[in-house]
Amino acid sequence: MIDHQKFINNFKYFDKEIVSEIIELFAEEYPTRFSNLHKNISESDFDSLQFNAHSLKGVISNFLANDTKELARQLEEKGKKNDSENLSVLFEELKSSTEKLLKELDILKNKYYS
């Protein structure tokens, strides 16, 4: 999922502690972010869905996880277009992909930044 060498190159000028904190912050924010997205979908709040998916996409971009970023982008587009078709399916795919990303980030953090 993550190209480890690109990840390392992306963060090579950061202190190990900073990279570790960035990863930990993303993991801590994960439940709230996905709770908000779920609420946006269930309430058909497309403006908030677009905003929250865009925000998540930006954070994921930092980790060079293109597949997960693409799912967030698709969710953002659905919010932009007020498109409710298959929203729940896309949400679950994004959630699953993000959970895999979190596991991989934890491995990277323990291997290189602890």
3D structure, described in words:
The chain has helices at residues 4-10, 16-42, 46-62, 66-80, 87-112. The protein is an all-alpha fold and 114 residues long. It has one domain (15-109): Four Helix Bundle (Hemerythrin (Met), subunit A) (Up-down Bundle). Helix 2 (16-42) runs antiparallel to helix 3 (46-62). The chain is elongated, with a radius of gyration of 15 Å. The model has no long low-confidence stretch (mean pLDDT 96).
Q: What structural class is derived from the secondary structure elements? A: mainly alpha
Radius of gyration (CA) equals 15 Å
Instruction: Look at the structure and give the CATH class.
Output: Mainly Alpha
Intertermini distance: 21 Å
Alpha plus pi helix count: 5
The CATH topology comes to: Four Helix Bundle (Hemerythrin (Met), subunit A)
Choose one word for the global shape.
elongated
CATH superfamily membership: HPT domain
Q: At CATH's second level, what is the architecture?
A: Up-down Bundle
Question: What percent of residues are in strands?
Answer: under 5%
The topology string of helices and strands comes to HHHHH
